[in-house]
């Protein structure tokens, strides 16, 4: 088991697999698995500042595709439980429609929003568009903000973990 974990960590190492790792991490983190992709996006952008927009676009694509998987899981759940009524608490979601998926970038609630959109059978392409806009703005804002933090600050935070 330890060998498997070590090989997975080696495979996902940013310097050797770069954008593929960022894409996969962003994809998996957009499903209902509790995982964050921002550290991978930031790490890649920090190592390759000239590829800022490329890593943001790759992460956005991976995270949006993960949101699409959530959407289809919700649609499948609806089909499996056909005939049940929707709860009143979803009325606001139905009222906003696909625009509600702009908030799919929010931690903890964003991924379930995509599943609920599928459950409610909101129009697919407008839903994907709003997902992508929200996720793109999140990656752009988060990564740019983290890149503006001085290196000395990151080094001070890492010092207790590196023994320095």
Radius of gyration: 18 Å
End-to-end CA span? 31 Å
> What structural category do the secondary elements indicate?
mainly alpha
Order of helices and strands: HHHHHHHH
Main sheet, how many strands, which sense, barrel? none
- As an assembly, this protein is single chain
- Total number of beta strands: 0
Fraction of residues in β-strands = under 5%
What general outline do the C-alpha atoms trace? globular
The portion of residues assigned to helices is: over 70%
Tally of individual helices:
8
Outline the low-pLDDT stretches.
none
| Count of spatially separate domains | 1
Mean pLDDT comes to 85
Explain what the structure shows:
The model has no long low-confidence stretch (mean pLDDT 85). It contains 8 helices and no strands. The chain has one domain (21-151). With 164 residues, it is mostly helical. The two termini are 31 Å apart. The protein has helices at residues 2-11, 14-30, 38-47, 52-80, 91-96, 110-119, 124-147, 151-162.
Tell me briefly what this model is.
The chain has 164 residues and is mostly helical. Helix content is 72%, strand content 0%.
Helix and strand layout, with pairings?
Layout (H helix, E strand, L loop, with lengths): L1 H10 L2 H17 L7 H10 L4 H29 L10 H6 L13 H10 L4 H24 L3 H12 L2
Helix pairs in contact: 2-3, 2-4, 3-4, 3-7, 4-6, 4-7
What key attributes describe this structure?
mainly alpha, 72% helix, globular
């Amino acid at each position: 088991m330890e060998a498997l974990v070590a090989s997975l960590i080696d495979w996902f190492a940013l310097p050797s697999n770069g954008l593929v790792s960022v894409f996969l991490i962003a994809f998996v983190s957009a499903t209902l698995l509790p995982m964050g992709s921002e550290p991978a996006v930031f790490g890649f952008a920090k190592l390759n500042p000239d590829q800022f927009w490329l890593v943001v676009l790759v992460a956005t694509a991976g995270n949006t595709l993960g949101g699409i998987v959530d959407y289809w899981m919700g649609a499948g759940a609806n089909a499996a439980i056909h005939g049940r009524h929707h709860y009143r608490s979803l009325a606001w979601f139905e009222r906003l429609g696909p625009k509600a998926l702009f908030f799919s970038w929010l931690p903890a609630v964003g991924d379930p929003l995509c599943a609920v959109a599928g459950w409610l059978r909101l129009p697919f392409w407008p839903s994907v568009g709003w997902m992508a806009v929200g996720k793109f703005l999140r990656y752009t804002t988060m990564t740019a903000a983290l890149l503006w933090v001085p290196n000395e600050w990151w080094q001070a935070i890492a010092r207790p973990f590196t023994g320095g």
